[in-house]
Amino acid sequence: MKRIGGWVCVAAALLSWPWAVARAGETGKTLSVTGIGSVEADVVADVGRFVEANYRADTTVKPPVEIGEVSAQTIVEALSGARSERDALLLGIVAVPETVFPDTLTLAGEGMAFLNITGLMPDPEKKDDPAEVEKSGWLIRKEAMRAFGLMIELTACPNPQCVLWPHKGREQLEKKGANLCPPCLEHAHRALRAKGVPVQFGRNLDLPFSRQDEP
Ligand SMILES: [Zn+2]
Questions:
Q1: Cα of 125 to ligand 1 centre, how many Å?
Q2: Structural contact between residues 57 and 197, judged by C-beta atoms closer than 8 angstroms
Q3: Cβ atoms within 10 Å of 107's Cβ, excluding its own
């Protein structure tokens, strides 16, 4: 009898395991990313892949959003207009002058944020240097990771290997980690599940990107 009880526990554990969650993901909400205006589709797709792998949560790369006149107002309106029911959190990636969005990250109402990658791109004279392009890619990924952390109101993390460590300046951004530390990932998963986003503890345990891959 004791043994049967044990099997019931095992069966219950299996039913609540991530596979069940993964199936729910087909209809659940997602973390979403879109490019606004003149952002390259490759950059947006890379951010989507990175965020999905490292938050271990369903992520959608939405079609790009066109804008006419470039202003903070038109960009905010464009992102709001692009948001759908499924977008639990929506990050709009823009490449606009820093007079439009002075900060790299700008929160734009509940569950929406902008990442202005202008200051994260290689210097114009180095834009064809593969090492500079690679370095820029890491800065963008880290800031995108932080953007989703801010949208779910995760607090700053004291661990400099964690992407939620509050870096000051470009040099510290380059040095800090690109992933969430285990306690921050746990907080993130709790917040994301509360917003209806399926998370997968059992998936992508071997992260495709790691600190060692950085230049
Ligand atoms: Zn952390």
A1: 35
A2: yes
A3: 14
The second-level CATH assignment, the architecture, of 29-199 is 3-Layer(aba) Sandwich (3.40)
| d(CA 206, ligand 1 centre) in Å | 18
Contact assessment for residue 33 and residue 59, using Cβ atoms and an 8 Å cutoff: yes
Lookup: tokens for 85: 């029911």
Question: Ligand 1 centre from 144 Cα, in Å?
Answer: 15
> What is the C-alpha R_g of the chain?
19
Q: Tell me the pLDDT tens digit for each residue of 113-135.
A: 999 999 999 988 998 999 999 99
Residue 26 CA, ligand 1 centroid: distance in Å = 29
Q: What is the whole-number distance in angstroms between the Cα of residue 200 and the centre of ligand 1?
A: 18
Q: What is the 75 CA–ligand 1 centroid distance (Å)?
A: 31
**pLDDT value, residue 209:** 40
Ligand 1 centroid from CA 60, angstroms? 24
Positions in the chain short of pLDDT 50: 1-2, 8-25, 202-215
Tokens for 34? 């879109």
Residue-level pLDDT at 200? 82
| 202: its two tokens | 């059992």
Ligand 1 center–CA 111 separation, angstroms = 20
Q: How many angstroms does the Cα of residue 47 sit away from the middle of ligand 1?
A: 19
- Please choose, from the candidates 69, 77, 80, the residue with its C-alpha nearest in 3D space to the C-alpha of residue 110: 80
* Calpha distance 135→213 (Å, rounded): 11
